[in-house]
Amino acid sequence: VHGDLGNGTFWEANRILKKTNFDGGVLCCVDDVTSQSTSELKLKEVIPDQEYLVEMQATKDGIFAIKVDEFAVFDCADNPVIASNFDQLSVIDTTPPKVVIDLLTFPNITNVINVSWNVKFSEVIGSFTPKNLTLIEKNGTILDNSILTSVTVQENLEYIVSAQLNFSGVFTLIARSSSFYDRAWNPIQQSNNDATVVLDLTKPTITLENENMLVTFSNNSLVH
């Protein structure tokens, strides 16, 4: 019995039967190798009374396997079949991974041009490149993602992404839907969009008015 990885699973039961009493009732579909069900299995006869293709349409995610139990089927001489192997597991995964992006630069209003974010996926993805992320300004301008670099925290699961910004603005790093996929090719859900940093590289100027003893800072800048 052979299994496969993906969203649809097929097995092939080879040359084990010689009587036409092989049906879904002798097969075990095991979710997480605990509970048994045969309602999701369909049979297609390949070689009459001898070889069958078994198709399963899973209704939920999980780890599945298939087997033929001992004494479930008999040959023409009424010899019972020996139980099949039960080691071909198939992972059914239809759940899109989530990703959370957190700003590591503190405070979020800064004059430090090297800005970093933590990018963490809820499950292992197929591959990662920071160029699949989007760095966007408050006015909607998308920056060239070639300025993004990354350091691996946990392979295909968590990364620190950095950018060197040399002009003032409000910047947000996001991961758009379908920019990354898990190993079953489910696209991610779009990340949160609150990982925003305010970069202020403009030095405030001071105006002194002796008559009223008034000190005014330019651009309504906050000072401390």
Description:
20% of the residues are buried. Strand 17 and strand 18 form a beta hairpin. With 224 residues, the chain is mainly β. Helix content is 0%, strand content 38%. Strands 9-11-14-13 form a four-stranded antiparallel beta sheet, with no helix packed on it. A four-stranded mixed beta sheet has the order 10-16-15-12, with no helix packed on it.
Sum this structure up briefly.
The chain is mainly beta. The protein is built from no helices and 18 strands.
Mean pLDDT: 81
Strand order of the largest sheet: 9-11-14-13
Overall helicity: under 10%
- Given the C-alpha coordinates, what overall shape results? rod-shaped
Classification by helices and strands: mainly beta
Tally of strands: 18
Q: Strands, helices and their partners?
A:
Blueprint: E1 9-13, E2 27-31, E3 35-37, E4 41-47, E5 51-56, E6 62-64, E7 66-68, E8 90-92, E9 99-103, E10 109-110, E11 114-121, E12 134-137, E13 148-154, E14 158-164, E15 169-174, E16 196-199, E17 206-209, E18 214-217
Parallel strand pairs: 10-16
Antiparallel strand pairs: 1-5, 2-3, 2-7, 4-5, 6-8, 9-11, 11-14, 12-15, 13-14, 15-16, 17-18
What tags apply to this protein structure?
single chain; four-stranded antiparallel β-sheet; 224 residues; 0% helix; mainly beta; 18 strands
